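R.M. (postdoc): so does anyone remember the format we settled on? I'll just put the structure tokens first.
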């Protein structure tokens, strides 16, 4: 069987930076705390745990004192930095610069919307680490919408400033913009409501869609490697499957099924921005060893 790994798949620069910081710190000491999974991939998380990385939940941060804590690429709300100061925690801040810029934009936008009795709306996944950090810039007042079914959360008689989680799809964001514009247009014809939107989606992530679909279309079968908790992974997996129905999602080599490759000669292996290259290579080797 001929197996090809997508050279454009794998960690985005934000995740690479966070992991490099973690490895650097763990080389100096045997303990480093991290608020939540450093990346949405269990295999990579377990590798770093073996080096001494300790994953904690947000509510555990209050109980830590005088130690080092890593902030992952997703970023954190202001509350995290306040606790760090109070508890003498040394923060190793690996927040993605694109996320940090978005946090600043939302904070300034929120200040303006407060003056105008307006609303900050974030197109993103409720409860996602990045979205939690973004909402934190608005004292928790931002409205989070995951799709059209959430539009009723918005008051269309008040100004709206719309932003997007950096890993959402561009097409999904554009649909939300059009739906909001349509809802506002069907209101009071004599009243013009201020509606502004910022396409804050990371192009390093969004530009992968087209390349990934081109890659998936070249093969008889495609194996997409991603952690199930990766929002970006689920989006990219579906986009692969849209162009190649024989696209299979795996977390690691143990998820592979031999019947997927019956009568198949050319197989493509690709993954999410949270998928390490070493894991895709491991999956590729396992596929090459399958006899069908």
């Amino acid at each position: 069987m001929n197996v090809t790994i997508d050279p454009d798949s794998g960690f985005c620069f934000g995740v690479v930076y966070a992991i490099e910081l973690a490895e650097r710190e763990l080389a100096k000491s045997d303990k480093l705390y991290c608020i939540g999974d450093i990346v949405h991939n269990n295999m990579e998380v377990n590798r770093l745990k073996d080096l001494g990385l300790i994953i904690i939940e947000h509510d555990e941060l209050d109980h830590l004192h005088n130690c080092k804590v890593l902030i992952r690429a997703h970023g954190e709300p202001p509350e995290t930095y306040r606790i760090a100061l109070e508890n003498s925690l040394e923060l190793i801040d690996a927040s993605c610069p694109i996320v940090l810029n978005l946090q600043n934009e939302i904070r300034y936008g929120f200040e303006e919307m407060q003056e105008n009795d307006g609303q900050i709306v974030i197109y993103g996944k409720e409860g996602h680490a990045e979205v939690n950090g973004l909402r934190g810039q608005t004292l928790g007042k931002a409205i989070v919408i995951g799709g059209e079914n959430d539009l009723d959360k918005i008051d269309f008689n008040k100004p709206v400033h719309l932003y997007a989680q950096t890993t959402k799809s561009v097409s999904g964001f554009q649909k939300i913009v059009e739906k909001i514009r349509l809802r506002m247009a069907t209101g009071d014809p004599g009243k013009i409501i201020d509606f502004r939107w910022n396409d804050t989606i990371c192009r390093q992530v969004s530009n992968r869609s087209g390349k990934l679909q081109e890659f998936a279309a070249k093969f008889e079968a495609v194996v997409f490697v991603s952690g199930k908790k990766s929002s970006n992974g689920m989006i990219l997996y579906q986009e692969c499957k849209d162009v190649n129905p024989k696209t299979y999602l795996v977390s690691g080599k143990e998820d592979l099924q031999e019947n997927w490759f019956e009568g198949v000669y050319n197989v493509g292996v690709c993954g999410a921005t949270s998928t390490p290259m070493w894991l895709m290579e491991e999956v590729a080797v396992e596929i090459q060893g399958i006899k069908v």
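R.M.: ...and that's the designed sequence above, right after the tokens. Also worth knowing: Residues 35 and 60 are 9 Å apart (CA to CA). The two ends are 9 Å apart (CA to CA).
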